[in-house]
Amino acid sequence: MADSANLSKSALKNKKRAEKRSKARIEQIKENGGILEEMQMKDPVDLLREQLQEAKNNKDHKLAARLRQQLWIAQDSAAGVSMKEFEMLGADTSTCFETKFVQETKSVSESPPSVLEASGLTPTEKRLRTLKKKLQQIESIKEKREKGEVLETTQLDKIAKEQEILDELREIDSLLTGS
Fold first, then answer.
1. DSSP string, 76-99
2. Which of 7, 12, 95, 164 is the 20 to 30 Å CA partner of 45?
3. pLDDT for the residue 119
4. Other C-beta atoms within 10 Å of 113: how many?
5. In 58-179, where does DSSP find H-type helix?
Protein backbone atom coordinates (compact mmCIF):
# COMPACT_ATOMS: atom_id res chain seq x y z
CA MET A 1 0.00 0.00 0.00
CA ALA A 2 3.07 2.23 0.21
CA ASP A 3 2.94 2.60 -3.58
CA SER A 4 -0.68 3.71 -3.43
CA ALA A 5 0.10 6.50 -0.96
CA ASN A 6 2.35 8.22 -3.50
CA LEU A 7 -0.22 8.09 -6.33
CA SER A 8 -2.80 10.74 -7.09
CA LYS A 9 -6.53 9.99 -7.09
CA SER A 10 -6.71 9.66 -10.85
CA ALA A 11 -3.61 7.45 -10.93
CA LEU A 12 -5.19 5.15 -8.34
CA LYS A 13 -8.39 4.94 -10.40
CA ASN A 14 -6.40 4.16 -13.52
CA LYS A 15 -4.44 1.49 -11.67
CA LYS A 16 -7.66 -0.14 -10.42
CA ARG A 17 -9.15 -0.06 -13.93
CA ALA A 18 -6.03 -1.66 -15.39
CA GLU A 19 -6.09 -4.41 -12.76
CA LYS A 20 -9.77 -5.02 -13.45
CA ARG A 21 -9.15 -5.22 -17.21
CA SER A 22 -6.26 -7.66 -16.78
CA LYS A 23 -8.38 -9.88 -14.51
CA ALA A 24 -11.19 -9.79 -17.07
CA ARG A 25 -8.77 -10.79 -19.84
CA ILE A 26 -7.45 -13.69 -17.78
CA GLU A 27 -11.00 -14.88 -17.10
CA GLN A 28 -11.90 -14.60 -20.78
CA ILE A 29 -8.85 -16.62 -21.78
CA LYS A 30 -9.71 -19.29 -19.21
CA GLU A 31 -13.29 -19.47 -20.51
CA ASN A 32 -12.26 -19.66 -24.17
CA GLY A 33 -9.85 -22.49 -23.61
CA GLY A 34 -6.54 -20.72 -23.52
CA ILE A 35 -4.30 -18.51 -25.58
CA LEU A 36 -3.90 -20.95 -28.47
CA GLU A 37 -7.34 -20.19 -29.94
CA GLU A 38 -6.69 -16.46 -29.72
CA MET A 39 -3.36 -16.84 -31.55
CA GLN A 40 -4.92 -18.93 -34.33
CA MET A 41 -7.56 -16.30 -35.05
CA LYS A 42 -5.06 -13.47 -35.58
CA ASP A 43 -4.12 -12.31 -39.04
CA PRO A 44 -0.57 -13.34 -40.05
CA VAL A 45 0.20 -9.72 -40.95
CA ASP A 46 -0.83 -8.63 -37.46
CA LEU A 47 1.32 -11.35 -35.91
CA LEU A 48 4.32 -10.20 -37.96
CA ARG A 49 3.68 -6.60 -36.90
CA GLU A 50 3.64 -7.62 -33.24
CA GLN A 51 6.81 -9.66 -33.63
CA LEU A 52 8.47 -6.75 -35.45
CA GLN A 53 7.53 -4.34 -32.67
CA GLU A 54 8.84 -6.79 -30.06
CA ALA A 55 12.13 -7.12 -31.97
CA LYS A 56 12.40 -3.33 -32.15
CA ASN A 57 11.78 -3.05 -28.42
CA ASN A 58 14.48 -5.66 -27.77
CA LYS A 59 16.79 -3.81 -30.19
CA ASP A 60 17.32 -6.99 -32.20
CA HIS A 61 18.03 -5.28 -35.52
CA LYS A 62 18.75 -8.41 -37.55
CA LEU A 63 15.49 -10.03 -36.51
CA ALA A 64 13.62 -6.77 -37.09
CA ALA A 65 15.00 -6.50 -40.62
CA ARG A 66 14.05 -10.08 -41.41
CA LEU A 67 10.56 -9.62 -39.95
CA ARG A 68 10.14 -6.35 -41.86
CA GLN A 69 10.88 -8.14 -45.14
CA GLN A 70 8.47 -10.93 -44.25
CA LEU A 71 5.84 -8.33 -43.37
CA TRP A 72 6.26 -6.59 -46.73
CA ILE A 73 5.90 -9.88 -48.55
CA ALA A 74 2.85 -10.86 -46.48
CA GLN A 75 1.22 -7.48 -47.11
CA ASP A 76 1.90 -7.75 -50.84
CA SER A 77 0.51 -11.27 -51.01
CA ALA A 78 -2.55 -10.19 -49.01
CA ALA A 79 -3.06 -7.40 -51.54
CA GLY A 80 -2.76 -9.95 -54.34
CA VAL A 81 0.60 -8.82 -55.67
CA SER A 82 3.26 -11.45 -56.21
CA MET A 83 6.94 -10.68 -56.70
CA LYS A 84 6.76 -12.05 -60.26
CA GLU A 85 3.98 -9.59 -61.10
CA PHE A 86 5.97 -6.83 -59.45
CA GLU A 87 8.97 -7.61 -61.65
CA MET A 88 6.78 -7.83 -64.76
CA LEU A 89 5.57 -4.30 -64.12
CA GLY A 90 9.15 -3.18 -64.61
CA ALA A 91 9.91 -2.43 -60.99
CA ASP A 92 13.51 -2.75 -59.92
CA THR A 93 13.47 -5.37 -57.17
CA SER A 94 17.23 -5.24 -56.80
CA THR A 95 16.88 -2.30 -54.40
CA CYS A 96 14.38 -4.12 -52.17
CA PHE A 97 16.74 -6.38 -50.26
CA GLU A 98 20.28 -5.98 -48.95
CA THR A 99 22.62 -8.25 -47.02
CA LYS A 100 26.31 -8.31 -46.25
CA PHE A 101 28.60 -10.35 -48.51
CA VAL A 102 30.45 -11.60 -45.45
CA GLN A 103 27.31 -13.20 -44.06
CA GLU A 104 26.15 -14.80 -47.31
CA THR A 105 26.20 -18.38 -46.05
CA LYS A 106 24.66 -17.42 -42.74
CA SER A 107 21.86 -15.39 -44.31
CA VAL A 108 21.03 -18.15 -46.78
CA SER A 109 20.60 -20.68 -43.99
CA GLU A 110 18.71 -18.32 -41.65
CA SER A 111 16.35 -16.66 -44.11
CA PRO A 112 12.98 -18.24 -44.68
CA PRO A 113 12.48 -19.60 -48.21
CA SER A 114 9.89 -16.94 -49.07
CA VAL A 115 12.43 -14.13 -48.59
CA LEU A 116 15.08 -15.87 -50.69
CA GLU A 117 12.66 -16.64 -53.51
CA ALA A 118 11.27 -13.12 -53.45
CA SER A 119 14.61 -11.35 -53.81
CA GLY A 120 15.79 -13.50 -56.71
CA LEU A 121 19.38 -12.33 -56.16
CA THR A 122 22.32 -14.21 -54.81
CA PRO A 123 24.18 -12.73 -51.85
CA THR A 124 27.11 -12.03 -54.19
CA GLU A 125 24.90 -9.96 -56.48
CA LYS A 126 23.50 -8.13 -53.48
CA ARG A 127 27.01 -7.33 -52.27
CA LEU A 128 27.91 -6.07 -55.74
CA ARG A 129 24.93 -3.72 -55.67
CA THR A 130 25.90 -2.49 -52.19
CA LEU A 131 29.46 -1.76 -53.29
CA LYS A 132 28.24 0.19 -56.31
CA LYS A 133 26.03 2.23 -54.01
CA LYS A 134 29.03 2.99 -51.77
CA LEU A 135 31.01 4.14 -54.81
CA GLN A 136 28.20 6.53 -55.73
CA GLN A 137 28.27 7.92 -52.19
CA ILE A 138 32.03 8.39 -52.41
CA GLU A 139 31.64 10.26 -55.71
CA SER A 140 29.07 12.60 -54.17
CA ILE A 141 31.37 13.22 -51.19
CA LYS A 142 34.24 14.02 -53.57
CA GLU A 143 32.01 16.52 -55.38
CA LYS A 144 31.22 18.19 -52.05
CA ARG A 145 34.93 18.37 -51.29
CA GLU A 146 35.61 19.98 -54.68
CA LYS A 147 32.94 22.59 -53.95
CA GLY A 148 34.83 23.48 -50.80
CA GLU A 149 32.51 22.00 -48.20
CA VAL A 150 34.05 20.88 -44.92
CA LEU A 151 33.84 17.10 -44.64
CA GLU A 152 33.32 15.03 -41.52
CA THR A 153 35.83 12.39 -40.49
CA THR A 154 33.42 9.61 -41.46
CA GLN A 155 33.19 11.06 -44.96
CA LEU A 156 36.97 11.26 -45.21
CA ASP A 157 37.16 7.63 -44.07
CA LYS A 158 34.77 6.64 -46.85
CA ILE A 159 36.96 8.34 -49.43
CA ALA A 160 40.02 6.56 -48.00
CA LYS A 161 38.29 3.19 -48.43
CA GLU A 162 37.55 3.78 -52.11
CA GLN A 163 40.42 1.61 -53.33
CA GLU A 164 39.35 -1.28 -51.10
CA ILE A 165 35.84 -1.06 -52.49
CA LEU A 166 37.13 -0.95 -56.07
CA ASP A 167 39.30 -4.02 -55.43
CA GLU A 168 36.40 -5.94 -53.92
CA LEU A 169 34.17 -4.87 -56.81
CA ARG A 170 36.66 -6.24 -59.33
CA GLU A 171 36.96 -9.47 -57.36
CA ILE A 172 33.20 -10.01 -57.21
CA ASP A 173 32.79 -9.02 -60.85
CA SER A 174 35.40 -11.60 -61.86
CA LEU A 175 33.57 -14.24 -59.79
CA LEU A 176 30.30 -13.45 -61.52
CA THR A 177 31.75 -13.38 -65.03
CA GLY A 178 33.90 -16.44 -64.36
CA SER A 179 37.15 -14.97 -65.65
1. HHHTT--HHHHHHTT--GGGT---
2. 95
3. 60
4. 7
5. 61-78, 83-88, 104-110, 113-119, 123-147, 153-160, 162-177
